[in-house]
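Box 3.1. Reading complex inputs
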Amino acid sequence: MPETAPFLRVLAGEPVWPPPLWMMRQAGRYLPEYRAIRAQAGSFLAFCYDPAMTVEATLQPIRRFGFDASIVFSDILVVPDALGQRVTFESGEGPRLTPITDGRGFDRLRETLDMAHLEPVFATIRRLKAELPAATPLIGFCGAPWTVASYMVAGRGTPDQAPARLLAYRDAGLFRRIVERLVASSIIYLRAQVEAGADALQIFDTWAGVLPTGEFERWCVEPVAAIVSGLRESHPATPIIVFARGAGPRLLELKDATGADAVGLDTATDPHWAARTLPEGTVTQGNLDPLALIAGGRALDAAVGRILAAFRHRPHIFNLGHGILPETPVAHVERLVELVRRG
Amino acid sequence: MPETAPFLRVLAGEPVWPPPLWMMRQAGRYLPEYRAIRAQAGSFLAFCYDPAMTVEATLQPIRRFGFDASIVFSDILVVPDALGQRVTFESGEGPRLTPITDGRGFDRLRETLDMAHLEPVFATIRRLKAELPAATPLIGFCGAPWTVASYMVAGRGTPDQAPARLLAYRDAGLFRRIVERLVASSIIYLRAQVEAGADALQIFDTWAGVLPTGEFERWCVEPVAAIVSGLRESHPATPIIVFARGAGPRLLELKDATGADAVGLDTATDPHWAARTLPEGTVTQGNLDPLALIAGGRALDAAVGRILAAFRHRPHIFNLGHGILPETPVAHVERLVELVRRG
């Protein structure tokens, strides 16, 4: 990977303008070519474990839009799946797992990740390194322990992940064991992604925002810091982005305490507040509202303009504030690329 | 109302310790005596429009716990209901309205609130003033225009109120007309509540957190500021609390731009951040996690302790960070009262 890729230069703290651009969930259902290959596979996880499919899905948005970074097509729930808590996705219903509600549920987990089960992810990364344009870095990722644990406890997504929050209050010892298992597993999983060829890593804490103070430190900040620290020991040159949706002003603490190279900003974060408040030189990533991308027109132009203005000539990676939605018109993504390339 | 009520003294900026205490949705399903009277009525809105029921529901938590403020039992959606967009509540399903998706939908609204339709709310307030303990202030309330509009557009609650956000992007002119109708209606509605006897007002912007910058200013801050300003003109002595869930660091702007007397803090707001960052003397309210109240035990004690420590000897009103949940054990509320009274 040439060190000159704008995405990696920004992650190293260099302001590059216009900013590099990629989109969370850039490989996905808004693309007709994705829907075409997705229709060939059975379950969503079968698709995730089929390197022919995941390589093609990862490449599609790069071919079409020439984004400045690619991200391996996978899902955060492959980790519990590889810990023996089998995951299924009902069509249009989201994930389903057998909930872990007590120590016996926890004891049914594997002590360590089944790496053979995850081999298709590593195979995907190796193949992508051969097939991606030389200048396009590849991002590996995992879910943060809190977010992954919240699905493992609830057995599904819920409006505010209350089942995991309640378990963490009622039996903090058990919840800590789940989180520690995930910290250890995530370090091993991310290391293997780097070994396979990932140039950068992102940790997704989608559900961080439902945690009050105290719980946020314990279940979001500390486990993510432990993962970053584990990666630093083995792979100090690999940059790490932390995206904690709903962190609000706690972004500051998250950045400081985890030592991540960059922080993702969610849709609700005021880019001017972030530019003003985060320490000089903090690398940021975000944060266009995916609904502005669906709406297009003047609303899109204005929203993109606000973000560009806030981060002008700072080390910023342009992205959405949350994943792109299936209803997004491809023409609006083309417009986004045009606006960001103009700077 | 004696000016010496701790709740009103804090709203006037005086630090009162231990802090006054009330709970959002303190009249509700976690109370057996509420479930008993609720079972007698038909629909939820019929219950809201029956002063015998709403007076009793409002008084129940005051009798049981001696809270420092009462809040009239009602619902934020009585406003669209009184604008002719009839609201129903399916059992266990939340509200249902005929969605406003275009100008014709908007044109079917009444130009002004049907005040006769809302008369039961004002009757409830008048009766409560006679029946409440002399030292217990009564809070009137309404939903903020953004939150109410988000239900009027979607016709229901959704995980992120996307239908209203999309309409606001696609047809800002139409969305502005809805919001302006709500601003004018809310001013009239709150004024009538004060005339009937409300001692303080709270404006609930439950869905503020889904709005990105720009949209937050336009649809949350400006309309709430217009309502506060309207009330200041007619009733300058009535204190106003603004609760914008998910406002994050934008609380600062909300407080400054609206001129509200106090800001409510949601569950995710770090109390230490708020105490450190909001201007000296800012009156705050909140922000115990309702799930800590369900969990009880050491988790509850620790969570209450953190909030008391952050706001010690500042003008703070102890409350939850969101409404109390139906599964909450009454004994845990008793413990909360004991902990807060101890200071």
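In summary: The radius of gyration of chain A is 19 Å.
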